[in-house]
Structure formats: structure tokens, C-alpha cells
Amino acid sequence: MKIILATQNQGKLRELQDLLADETIEVLSLNDIEDWEDVEENGETFAENAALKAREAVKKTGLIALADDSGLEVDALNGAPGVYSARFAGEPKNDERNNDKLLQLLEIVPEDKRQARFRCALVVATPAGEEYLTEGTVEGQILTERRGSAGFGYDPLFFVPEYARTMAELTLAEKNKLSHRAQAFRQAIPILQGLKRQS
């Protein structure tokens, strides 16, 4: 069975391919589609944005499609940056400026009020119009300065208490084990297995 993951991110593609290694499911990406135009992610939630991308990928390819949307939610900012995580500091998107803006907004927020989470919504969409949603979250808190050089986005500021390190200080294997996206991907595997049996 062939499926498409609606991303051009090779890291995400490898992550899903690794999880499906024993499943005889071939995973394509948007790099395999000619004339792909980015979908405007104008949903109000991660799930809405993931569904928009998944539906477009099904329409373009006729294959079962997976798409995810994820970001950071900070309690002291009423859940911001949320769906605007990638472009928090404006266009063009820039990790450093996003982190600077986050630190600035939390400048006077005490350590015990800096709870946050990474959240991922993943939608599996089929040519028959069925849609399945899986989600993953990682709880943590925002530090007052960056730590670690691995990872990307808000990873250097996101402290994971159970590992006593930031996301940017974890190994790739550790991060892939606990990440919000890995959780959502793992929950999607039985859905894909079921769809494969039906095909």
C-alpha cells in the first residue's frame, strides 16, 4: 500500500518510515508530487490545519494521506503562540526571532508560572472521505534562556522535567521517543493497518 505524508520535511518522512518499517507500507512525501502548491493553513486549531493539508494531498494523489500540524502552547500567554507558532514574530518565519519574542513576553513571568506544551494533531484522510484524528502532547516549561544546540524551533527554551533537559539537549532518539509528533504518528499506525486490510 502506498500513502502520502503531506510534508517536504525529510526528518518527518524518515520518522514515519521508521515507524512503518515492518508494515509493507510505502510512504511518499510532497517532494514526490509535481505542481504541489502550499495549502493556506487558515484553520483555528492544529486539527483543522492538518485536515486541510491531508484533504488536498488526497485530492492531488488519490492516495491515503497523512498531515500534521503542531506548535507550542504557553499557559501564561493563554495558549499562544498556538497555530501561529512558526510565524510568531512575523514573516518570514524565523526560529531565533520567535524565541526572542517568547522570552520578551515572559520576561516578568515567574518560573512556576511558565508551563507550556508542544501539541501535535495528525489527520489521516482517505479517498473515500474518511478522516481520523490522532494527537500527541509533551508537557514542560519555558526557561529564561536557551540551552542546547540540537533540535529546532522552540526546543532550546522548552525544558522537559522528566529528562531534566531541554528538547535541544536531548538526543534524536530520545526526542523521537517522547515527541508530540511521534506520539501522534504511533497512534496512526493501527489506523493505517486497518485501512491496509480493507484495501
Automatic annotation (TrEMBL):
MF GO annotations: dITP diphosphatase activity; ITP diphosphatase activity; metal ion binding; nucleotide binding; ribonucleoside triphosphate phosphatase activity; XTP diphosphatase activity
Binding site for Mg(2+): E40, D69
Active site: D69 (proton acceptor)
A Pfam family reported for this protein in Swiss-Prot or TrEMBL: Ham1p_like
Binding-site list for substrate: T7, Q8, N9, Q10, G11, K12, S70, F152, G153, Y154, D155, K175, H180, R181
Single GO cellular component term: cytosol
Domain of life: Bacteria
Protein name as it appears in the record: dITP/XTP pyrophosphatase
